[in-house]
Every structure is written in structure tokens, then in C-alpha cells.
TrEMBL record:
Signal peptide: 1-27
Keyword Signal attached: yes
Keywords: Signal
InterPro entries: FApF
The protein, known as: Phenol degradation protein meta
Species this protein is from: Afipia broomeae ATCC 49717
């Protein structure tokens, strides 16, 4: 078992090092991805028992791209951009009783909610709202984020748990051309992903990784075709008690193909980003219903042609099925 674990860690480290060493990286329109980096973390590969579950994620981000560097967003060309954003993302997960290839079949849906990104641009060019050239322009609008629908198969084998799945992003229709503050990216996309968790109940250790490729479709409002992207997330978590966990988290992003279309005025727009951070989780019960909470904070660095900043998640998850309204089995064994 230890040999398998060491091999798994070695593969992950080699993959990260190889990606960091790649010379040509690219970034999507607006320097943002439809896949929310850092969304997966501890227990990423674990599929719960059949039933219906609900998770509410509140996402925060504060970052900037300075040095006079330009950023194409909303059909505009902006420079010296800073942004502060928050979104609330409610997701319903249905793990069906069905088995396919020995794996549990599951479906998920994230409905759009209101967000109000606050975006400041030191220099803005070709804007119908602010004129041909604007200095120190701030835009903040309350609007809808996008829909996300997904499905996956989940397997278990001893301490190993893994998933293979696909999700799709559907624009909510709230996107406004020429507006800096858009919660929707107006970019349909398909994300193919795989997750893996090694969870040892005897020592209360969770090692998880998730990787995926995002295949972007054209933003028809700006005629901008973002290239395809790769994202990798990882988490190392220790159960200090049955209820309390603490650990390290991180993610890596790199676009793999060039941007195109008449809206891609900066060409391939090369870029990438890396992030490291921490995670704290606590599980408690209300009546007999278990409630799991988690905070994750990421600090980005080595950003190229993307904003660099701090991202955070506050997550609450709860089983909705009546049969599941009871304490879940502990992920660590009881100690004498």
C-alpha cells in the first residue's frame, strides 16, 4: 500500500513540475475560466452513498493585474485591472442506485445566482459606455452567473476512491457586451475531469487530486474563441478528530491551445497561474442531520496574463434524502 501511495505522489509531483516547465502557456478571454479554480479539495474522489445531497459554496476573490498589462474582457481592452468578486453557488447532487461498469452513477446541477463583481480599470479603451478612452473606471453590477450541469461515475477499492465525469457550462443570458462587471462569461464549455482520493481511516489522512480539461466554445457577443484549458487541484488533509480537519490545498492552471476570433486582439494571450493555501473543516449535527462545513483559502502566484490574488471558499453540505438524515460514518476509526 505504501509503495502505491509513493508512486501516486511521485506521478502528481512529476506532472506539476512538467507543466510548470512548459514554455508556452495561454489564458482565456478576460483571464478567467468557466471552471472555478479551487472548487475541488479534500475528499474529491469520494462518492457518497446513493441519495440526494446539497452543497452551498460562497466564493470570494480579490486580485489585480498591473504593470500596464492589457486584458481583453467584455469586448473591451483594459489595463491595470483590479477586481473584488463574490458568488454564491448552490449545487444539488443526486447519487443514483444505478451501477455502470461497477461505478456509482451521479448527476449534479449548479443553478445561477446573483453576483456583483467590482472591477476597476486604470485604462479602458473602445468602450461605448465610458467613451473611447477612460481612466480609472469602476464598474459594479449585480447580475447572474452561469448554469453548470454534470455527471460522473464513482468507484471505491479499499482506501482508494476515484471518479470520472463530465460537466457543461450554460450561459445564463445576463452577459452585457461592453460591461466590465459580468458574473457570466457568456462562454459555453465542456469540462472532462477525473478525481482521486486516498483515505486511510486508521491514521485519518486524506490525499486528494483532481484534474480536468475545459473545452471552450465561442463567446458570440465578442467573437472570442478561448483556447482549451487544463486545471489541476490537490489537497492533503489530516483528521485531528472525527469532526475537525486541517490541511493544505493548491491548484495549477494552464491553457493548452491558442485563442482565436476577431475579438482576440492580443493574439494567443499567453498566461498561467499557481496557488497554494490552507483548509479547515468541521462537521456537526443539527438534530440527527449531519452538517459539514469547510473553509479554503488560496494565494495565487507566478501569474502570467491573469489576475493574481486571493481566493476563498466557505462551503456547507448536507444530505437531503430522508434515509440519509442520520450521522454519516466517521472517516477515521475511533481510538481507545
Amino acid at each position: 500500500m505504501r509503495c502505491k501511495l509513493h508512486a501516486l505522489l511521485g506521478i502528481c509531483v512529476a506532472l506539476i513540475c512538467g507543466l510548470v516547465a512548459t514554455e508556452h502557456a495561454r489564458a482565456a478571454e478576460g483571464g478567467a475560466s468557466v471552471y472555478l479554480l479551487g472548487a475541488r479539495g479534500p475528499g474529491a474522489g469520494v462518492t457518497p452513498p446513493p441519495g440526494v445531497y446539497f452543497e452551498d459554496d460562497t466564493y470570494f476573490y480579490s486580485g489585480k493585474i498591473g504593470g500596464g498589462r492589457a486584458l481583453p474582457t467584455g469586448g473591451l481592452l483594459v489595463a491595470n485591472v483590479s477586481a473584488q468578486s463574490w458568488f454564491n453557488l448552490p449545487t444539488t447532487l443526486w447519487v443514483t442506485p444505478a451501477k455502470i461498469l461497477g461505478g456509482d452513477l451521479a448527476f449534479s446541477a449548479t443553478i445561477p445566482t446573483f453576483g456583483a463583481p467590482r472591477v476597476n480599470a486604470g485604462l479602458l479603451v473602445n468602450s461605448p459606455r465610458f467613451g473611447p478612452v477612460g481612466l480609472n473606471v469602476t464598474d459594479e453590477k449585480t447580475n447572474l452567473s452561469d448554469y453548470q450541469l454534470g455527471s460522473f461515475l464513482g468507484w471505491h477499492a479499499g482506501n482508494f476512491h476515484w471518479q470520472l465525469g463530465v460537466s457543461g457550462v450554460v450561459p445564463s443570458g445576463s452577459y452585457v457586451l461592453g460591461q466590465l462587471s459580468n458574473a457570466s462569461l457568456n462562454r459555453p464549455a465542456v469540462d472532462v475531469f477525473g478525481t482521486l482520493t486516498w483515505l486511510d481511516p486508521a491514521i485519518g489522512l486524506d490525499l486528494s487530486a483532481a484534474a480536468g480539461f475545459t473545452f471552450n466554445q465561442r463567446n458570440r457577443a465578442t467573437d472570442y474563441q478561448s483556447g482549451n484549458e487544463f486545471h489541476l487541484e490537490w489537497a492533503a488533509t489530516k483528521y485531528l478528530t472525527k469532526e475537525f480537519t486541517i490541511g493544505l490545498v493548491g491548484y495549477y492552471y494552464q491553457q493548452m491551445t491558442a485563442d482565436s476570433g476577431t475579438g482576440a486582439t492580443l493574439g494567443a494571450f499567453e498566461g498561467r497561474v499557481v496557488a497554494l493555501g490552507g483548509s479547515v473543516g468541521y462537521t456537526f449535527e443539527i438534530g440527527k442531520i449531519p452538517l459539514a462545513t469547510r473553509i479554503k483559502v488560496y494565494r495565487e502566484f507566478s501569474a502570467v496574463n491573469r489576475m493574481e490574488g486571493t481566493a476563498g471558499y466557505f462551503s456547507i453540505s448536507v444530505p437531503l434524502s430522508a434515509a440519509l438524515a442520520q450521522p454519516m460514518p466517521s472517516p477515521i476509526k475511533a481510538r481507545d
